Amino acid sequence: MAVRHRLISTSPQSVWTVLEDGTRYAEWVVGTSSSKPVRGHWPQLGSAIGFEVRLGPLSLTNETVVRRCVPGEALELEAKAGPLGTARIAIELRPWGDHCLVIVDEHPLRGAGGTVHNVAVEALIQIRHRAMLARLARICETDAAEAERHRPLGQVVSPAPDGGGARA
Fold first, then answer.
1. Is 100 within 8 Å of 11 (Cβ atoms)?
2. In a designed cystine with 14, which of 10, 43, 58, 156 is the match (CB 3.0 to 4.6 A)?
């Protein structure tokens, strides 16, 4: 299983705000050139995002379906990859002081992807996750900094209940 983590310098709520926006999926998911919600209200159970992957002149479209959602804490997805099958991608958010520890766990679920899964494929997934988490961190930290710049002077931001003292 490809498990990777990254500490993002913002609150779990800031990270969740990006994850729950189905229109931003292609911004942080490596290999995805475009995305849009196609079914339900993302990220509710059973909702789906359609995505496109481009490899040179080739273009493949598929979808990712929400299989489990605990708002602000966990998002589990089933990404469909046509003849390669499907993969389970679990994203967990944990408060870590004033920051958010993001843990991504991905493995083949159905189809040919599971048959050819080996150490080399695992290494490629790790490289992809490193890039994906770096993108997610950049987006979340930039969004949080932008929100802080637009906060009215003198406005006090109190910690969220059970937020570990993190600023919202």
1. yes
2. 10
